[in-house]
Structures are given as structure tokens and as C-alpha cells.
Amino acid sequence: MALIVMKFGGSSVADSDKMKHVANKVIARKKGGNKIVVVVSAPGDTTDDLITRCEEITADPNPREMDMLLATGEQMSISLLAMAIQSMGHKAVSLTGFQAGISTDDDYTRARVKKINPKKIFELLDKGNIVVVAGFQGMNKAGDITTLGRGGSDLTAVALAAQMKANLCEIYSDVEGIFTTDPRVVKDAKKIDLISYEEMLEMAGSGAQVMQTRSIEVAKNYGIEIHARSTFSDKEGTYIVSEEKIGRKKMEDLMVSAVTFDKNQVKFSLIDLPDVPGMAAKIFSSIAKLGINVDMIIQSAALDKKNDISFTVSKSDMKKTQQKVDELAKQLGAQTVTCDEHVAKVSVVGVGMKTHAGVASKMFDILAKNKINIEMISTSEIKVSCVIDSVDLNKAVNELHKGFKLNKK
């Protein structure tokens, strides 16, 4: 008897008909002789609606109260799904994150899982129940509800699968798997059958909104095989596994596996900073203390004992970053601060880059031939990213996808 963790995103449980469809899908897996743990996100746009409600009340919500609010979306889903399963003649019990034994740190709105005690889940499974767990949430040592950040239900599912030694973790959404790029932008994007943890980490970190980055880190660390697939199709999706399982030679034959992009970027620049030791440390340590993640950084060569530092952050952190950067500019002697909201990041990702030279130069050549200016560049062993003007994004994605022959995969 296999233990399977099935996670369903918000689009899969957006209304009553979809909720019933999910219930049928879960029951079918149970009838196959499996023990089933289901992790569910908030229905549809519920989380965004709750954030909008909050913004109508205050521009600066208390993080603890924000988590109390946001956690209600998943609790709606678990109770409704449990009821749907019960109405079809099967046993089901819903559990909040805390009831499922998920303990977190104290970082409200972006908490990290510290430990999981799945004793109650195992007891309910042994009694023949389908156990439905609220994704995205846990509880800290003070007894407060915490949430795990955007996409946190993925992390809930993978962390439970790891702790419970599940045979498989299935992540269901409204797409059939992981694609070579977003099919809404490139019509001939292809579904990827197998992808490595490393590639998926880079894709998630560079804008692909398929899996939460932290969930892939946990899967990699614990060797959890993930099957990303569609709620509304029985076709196989994409398996996220180790390089060894795919076969290194097969992976290295493919220079680039995917093109990703991120429109949720803002670029800040501090102009004419004094060129003295420790300047970057002062800037980025101050920003880090606010819990803001900096993505890309570029520093110009010093001229007349002055230089410029530019960096990108998420648009959701723009207001906090702007306040801090204005403060730092006065303290550190920068002449000007600029903020550019009209930028986007485009990346090419592939494990094959480890053994193929010239990926970066080919990417730059494709962008140059299409008269797309590059504002910032960053690289890793298996990724090259460029910040460009947002008006050029769709063209860049299409031309890179074609240029690296991903449409012929």
C-alpha cells in the first residue's frame, strides 16, 4: 500500500464543481489501494481577495494579524473538500497546519518549517480516512498561526511527503506539467517529461510560477520525487527528480531546457556613491534587515572616486525598499536615487550549460539581433539572466525559445 501526498492549487478548487472533481480524483487514488494525504490551497483568488480587503483597512498591516487573515482561505478549502469526499461515501478528516503537526519559526508571512510531527495524520490514515491538510500554514512556539509565503502549499506538501516518507508527491494545477516556457507567451512551448531538482530550482527562482523554490529545496534534500500534473487531465505531467535518475549524459545533450521570465521586478540605482570600502555591505545589510530579498546586483567601475550600484527586488517590496534607499542615499552621500518599475528579467536554464560553452554569448547575440538592450546580467552554473525593458519581454522570450530550438524539443 503506497502513501501518496496529493496537492491541489487554488485553480483546482476554485468553485463547487471543481471541488467535487478533485474529490472524485482523490477517491479514485484511494480505491487503488493507497493511503492518501491531500494538501489544498485557498480557492481561486481568495488569497488575493483577502489581501485586497486588508489594503482597504490599512497600508501597514500587523504581520501576525495578516497571517491570521490569510490562513482562513486554506481552512475554507479543507473543510469543503472533506465534506465533498464524505458526501460521496468515503471517510475524510480535515486538519489545519497546526493540527497536522507543522511547527514553524516566528517569521510571520514567510515562516520556515522547523519540524513536523505527523502522528495525528498517521492515526487517521490507519482508520481508513483520507486526510485533508491546509497548505501554506503552521504554528509557531507562541501558538500563533503563521503562513509560509507565496506558493507555501507546495512546501507543505513536499515537507509532509519527506517527513512521512511518502512514495510520491503529486502537485496538481491547471497546466499539464512544466513547460519549456509559459505557453501563454510562446504558443509552441513543449512539456518537459523529466527535469532535475537543480533546473527546477533555477526556473522557480527566475520567475517560473509552477513550484515554490523552497519546496524544491526540500525535495532535493530528501530525495522526494515530484509529479507536477494537471487536475483536469489523466495524462502524465513532469517528473522532478535527481540528475542521476534522468541520466547525466541525456541531460548534458540538451544545452538549454527552458526560458523563464519575471515581470515582478523593480530596479533601484544609487548614483555617484563615494567609492570607499564597505559601501555595498552597508546598503545590502540594511535592506536584508527588512526581510527584503535582493535578486540581481551590478556595480559600475569607479570614476573620479565615485560609482553607481543598481539592484533589483520584487515589486511587492518596492515601497519598503524605496524608503530605505532614500534614507541610505542621504547617509552615504549618493547624489541621486532612481527607481525603474518598467523592467523584467528573462533567463535561460539548463544543466547542459555545465558542459557546453557559449550559452551566454548566444543569448546576448539573440537579444542584440532583436535590438533588445540588456541592463543587468547575472549567471550561475546552469542559468544566465538578463534584465531588460518590460516592453521587450514577450519578444525576448519568443526569440530565445526559438533561438535555442526549444520549440523542436
Describe the structure.
This protein has helices at residues 16-31, 46-57, 63-87, 119-126, 152-163, 197-205, 213-222, 243-246, 248-252, 279-288, 318-332, 359-369, 393-403, and strands at 3-8, 35-40, 92-95, 102-104, 113-116, 130-134, 137-139, 145-147, 168-173, 178-179, 191-192, 194-196, 226-230, 238-241, 258-274, 297-299, 306-314, 336-349, 376-380, 383-389. By secondary structure, the protein is an alpha/beta fold. The chain folds into two domains: 3-253, 3-Layer(aba) Sandwich (Carbamate kinase), CATH 3.40.1160.10; 259-408, VC0802-like. Helix 1 (16-31) packs across helix 3, helix 5 runs parallel beside helix 7 (213-222) and helix 6 (197-205) runs antiparallel to helix 7 (213-222). The chain is globular and about 75 Å long. The model has no long low-confidence stretch (mean pLDDT 93).
Topology record:
Blueprint: E1 3-8, H1 16-31, E2 35-40, H2 46-57, H3 63-87, E3 92-95, E4 102-104, E5 113-116, H4 119-126, E6 130-134, E7 137-139, E8 145-147, H5 152-163, E9 168-173, E10 178-179, E11 191-192, E12 194-196, H6 197-205, H7 213-222, E13 226-230, E14 238-241, H8 243-246, H9 248-252, E15 258-274, H10 279-288, E16 297-299, E17 306-314, H11 318-332, E18 336-349, H12 359-369, E19 376-380, E20 383-389, H13 393-403
Parallel strand pairs: 1-2, 1-9, 2-6, 3-6, 9-13, 12-14
Antiparallel strand pairs: 4-5, 7-8, 10-11, 13-14, 15-17, 15-18, 16-17, 18-20, 19-20
Helix pairs in contact: 1-3, 2-3, 5-7, 6-7, 10-11, 12-13
